[in-house]
């Protein structure tokens, strides 16, 4: 177990998809937090320099490099980082970027997975930091998916998508879902993604009601999961 204190570099692709409930335990453990904005800041350099990296979500596709050229440099930096197995956590788009950087395909899944639902954890998941999420409804919010990278260990699935989480060793953890969602900020998601929700025919009041019920439970479980992962990190 490691009590190493570091500067946590956070890559954001969308302002309201931030660290959420993860910010508190990181600060409590003595980590400083530095946020960089994809498409605005020099994200590639930040990824290269980061002691501990968290790559967050966003509504764009990993494969949309023609529309969002910054993804090319972001992916190249992630390739370098993950090849060295440096401490890296990815959430949703962040997980998809990590999968691509590890050589796996990322592509539209053909169906939106938006809302609250429990994960299916195989034995490897139950023996990983994700054990804290067992029986807890997490927030799903994606339409893309990925193949499992070579040498990656599958940690979670859902009825719609078999690849929900993976790790490579102790330092590299990718989560397709959102364990960091903060209940008090959930209205920002409903406002910011209103077009996507309307196109998918999803009921906003239902999602809001579910967040009030499920959100506090996820916050507690998500923080426990994060602390467990941090404790297992191997620092160079």
Detail the topology: elements first, then pairings:
Layout: E1 7-12, H1 23-28, E2 32-37, H2 43-49, E3 52-55, H3 70-83, E4 88-91, H4 93-101, E5 106-118, H5 123-126, E6 137-146, E7 153-156, E8 165-168, E9 172-175, H6 186-192, H7 194-200, H8 204-232
Parallel strand pairs: 1-2, 1-3, 3-4, 4-9
Antiparallel strand pairs: 5-6, 7-8, 8-9
Helix pairs in contact: 2-3, 3-4
Tell me about this structure.
By secondary structure, the protein is an alpha/beta fold. Helices cover 35% and strands 23% of the residues. The protein has one domain: Class I glutamine amidotransferase (GATase) domain (Rossmann fold, 3-Layer(aba) Sandwich). Strands 2-1-3-4-9-8-7 form a seven-stranded mixed β-sheet. The protein has a two-stranded antiparallel ribbon with strand order 5-6. The protein is globular and about 45 Å long.
Summarize this structure as a short list of keywords or feature phrases:
8 helices, alpha/beta, Rossmann fold, 236 residues, two-stranded antiparallel ribbon, 9 strands
Give the structure's gist in a few sentences.
By secondary structure, the chain is α/β, with parallel strands linked by helices.
Beta content comes to 15-25%
Q: How are the strands of the biggest sheet laid out side by side?
A: 2-1-3-4-9-8-7
What summary fits the major beta sheet? 7 strands, mixed
Provide the CATH topology.
Rossmann fold
Could you say which structural class the secondary elements and strand pairing correspond to? alpha/beta
CATH class: Alpha Beta
Q: Specify the number of helices.
A: 8
Order of helices and strands: EHEHEHEHEHEEEEHHH
**Morphology:** globular
Would you report the number of β strands? 9
* Quaternary structure: single chain
The CATH architecture would be 3-Layer(aba) Sandwich
Number of domains as seen in the coordinates:
1
Rg over C-alpha atoms, rounded to the nearest angstrom = 16 Å
